[in-house]
Task: inverse folding
């Protein structure tokens, strides 16, 4: 085997090793995301029940329509006097892309859940870590922001903050 063949074999071995490490890192990211979601659920359930009067709270909701699907970390709703629905996006580390993802879920929600079209729809971005700038941007867009504090998620609503209802406008 000449030097060029040895070099190509070494490159192939290194490529396989890099692929293996990439898969391991991807698995760790998924596990940390699942950990954050699991940690958030008990606290978010309490908040959704007590603050927003939700009678239904479910984690990991997936709804399919033909070849398309919508995945929600947490979906909750109230009926009767309150008649509201909440989508909670849970992140281990929230950034501007997290806001865009939540806005997309809110926009796509009516297509997948037409049975809730009469409810006001709100978004909550819950994160283990979130910068003040990202939290401010989320609130500017009318989203609630939840943060981890003392091993539980807390929803702090600044004075004067008004959440935006993402309920779609009814066609005339």
Result:
């Amino acid at each position: 085997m000449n030097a060029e063949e040895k070099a190509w074999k070494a490159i192939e071995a290194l490529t396989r090793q890099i692929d293996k490490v990439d898969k391991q890192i991807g698995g760790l990211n998924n596990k940390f995301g699942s950990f954050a979601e699991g940690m958030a659920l008990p606290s978010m359930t309490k908040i959704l029940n007590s603050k927003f009067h939700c009678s239904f709270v479910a984690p990991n909701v997936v709804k399919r329509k033909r070849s398309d699907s919508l995945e929600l970390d947490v979906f909750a709703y109230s009926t009767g006097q309150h008649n509201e629905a909440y989508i909670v996006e849970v992140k281990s580390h929230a950034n501007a892309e997290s806001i865009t993802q939540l806005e997309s879920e809110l926009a796509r929600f009516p297509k997948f859940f037409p049975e809730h079209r009469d409810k006001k729809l709100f978004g909550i971005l819950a994160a283990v870590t979130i910068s003040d700038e990202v939290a401010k941007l989320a609130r500017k867009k009318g989203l609630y922001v939840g943060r981890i504090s003392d091993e539980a998620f807390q929803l702090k609503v600044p004075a004067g903050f008004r959440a935006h209802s993402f309920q779609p406008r009814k066609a005339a």
